[in-house]
Amino acid sequence: MKKYKMRRGEHLEDRMPDLKAEIEDYFGPVTGTEEVDGHELYVVEEPENPVFDRIVAGAAEYSGKKDKLAVHFDERPAEEVIAEGHADAAAEAVSKKNEFLLEATGRDAKARRDSMKRAVEDDADAPDDV
């Protein structure tokens, strides 16, 4: 499960007031919810794109902090999808993920990568609890 921050000064509920509808527009009908790390997230059991097996997405809410977008994409191996003749679906899946994350967070793929890289570096600088 990856959690994505919004751009500075922006909030998830402002960018996507109806998160469930946005998830359905991008990936297919929401079939239920699932609790992950104390957050109630939407589940798409049968995404429209054959690359995805299952998608779990929603708002990770924290008291006193801005919400983050929590997302997990269960994907089939690219070789398998291409062998079935769905090469165009593989390219579309990458595009759909990036468009959804850009619209939700206001950050493009490069900005999201840089942010996650900084978070990993910050964790490495923190002392271990010994």
Q: What report would you give on this structure?
A:
The protein has five helices and five strands. With 130 residues, the protein is an alpha+beta fold.
Order of helices and strands: EHHEEEEHHH
Strand order of the largest sheet: 1-5-4-3-2
Number of strands: 5
Show unreliable segments. none
Class computed from helices, strands and strand pairing: alpha+beta
Strand content: 15-25%
* Global geometry: globular
Q: What kind of sheet is the major sheet?
A: 5 strands, antiparallel
Q: Share of helix among residues?
A: 40-55%
Provide the domain count. Answer: 1
Number of helices: 5
**Rg estimate, integer Å:** 16 Å
- Overall average pLDDT: 88
State the main characteristics.
single chain; 130 residues; alpha+beta; five-stranded antiparallel beta sheet; 24% strand
Quick structural gist:
This protein has 130 residues and is α+β, with helices and mostly antiparallel strands. It has five helices and five strands.
